[in-house]
Amino acid sequence: MQRSNPVVVIVAVALAVGASAPAAAQPADTIFVGDHIVTMDPERPAVEAVAVRDGVIAAAGARGAVLARRGEETRVVELGDRALLPGFIDAHGHFLAVGRGLDTLSLHSPPVGDVTDIDGLVGKIRAWIAERDIPPGGAVVGSGYDDSLLAERRHPTRDDLDRASTRHRIVLTHVSGHLRAANSAALEASGVTADTPDPPGGHIRRRAGSREPDGVLEETAGGLVAGGGPAPTPGELETLARRALEVYAAYGTTTVQDGSTGPGTLRSLRAAAAREPVRGRRRGVPALPDDGRRRGRDLRAGLPRRPPGRRRQVQPRRVAPGAHRLGHRALRGGAAGGAARLPGLRHPRPRRLARRRRRTSSGAGCPSSSTPTATPPST
Hints:
Elements (H helix, E strand, L loop, with lengths): L7 E3 L19 E9 L7 E8 L2 E6 L1 H5 L7 E4 L4 E3 L2 E2 L5 H7 L3 E2 L11 H15 L6 E7 L12 H7 L4 E6 L4 E4 L1 H6 L12 E5 L6 E7 L14 H17 L2 E9 L1 H13 L5 E6 L7 E2 L56 H4 L3 E2 L19
Parallel strand pairs: 1-6, 2-5, 7-14, 8-9, 9-10, 14-15
Antiparallel strand pairs: 2-3, 3-4, 10-11, 11-13, 12-13, 16-17
Helix pairs in contact: 2-6, 3-4, 6-7
């Protein structure tokens, strides 16, 4: 996936800021030259050129010193007004949900999509069913709708979604991931009725003057309706994870998060990384039993070390100066290039806020990573 933005060129993980290599060094594959190369190292915040060989940043420094690595086949990229930056860190996300969302109906409003009112949303669902030739009884899974950007300023109800179809199970996930909207067929198939109580940490919205669900399900209540087919197999999980990482890499994001990661998912990701190293760095936040609290503890899938002192949802405000060392892997211009394994950025010492013990109510935490999200991360 290519970005049309002409301003930013991404080099993932870290910009090397060491001294240029000796003249006998092997020629670079690519050399980036420009006036806006940002290293994020306060001791040397900018350089004039960066050389990359075999997907590894080999040198960075003055233009002349780095261009000394140019060979007959070296590609020299003049950045002009564009900037070259270290890879971005996803501070809070669900990268597996992004992978699932690639195959779901996008119902985003401008500027991401074109849904501006509930009639338009219903029309897109009808078109999706027709284009995909989904048989009666099949599921329609959509995501990304935003009630605050719809003309009606409300969520679609079961009555709205029944206008799209009463013969298909329709389940839509709010852009936040914290609510779902379902039609009558989906509610009936999931056994959600007037007698269904609100689950802990969730709320079933009801029709005015009755206990009958109106189709909008908040927080954990969204888990009462099936959002699609069965859970993915380990092989399917690996495929969607790799697809999602390519999306993130295309936007220059090289460290990603997956909130509410289950132990089975974590094992599958570790096994996948052992078979074939992935491009990018993943962090998983465990989904613990619902005892009313979630304790902050990071899990990392298939990676060698865990930075000490890091807490869930607490991210550094700046990149660690110690991250910028020669030999870090590079990802050139997003997903197009780069090495098979990216070690990622080292983390600075946590600030005082990050050292506090934090507990989050299960009702206010992140939705499960099974919640589909159709939009890629934006930068």
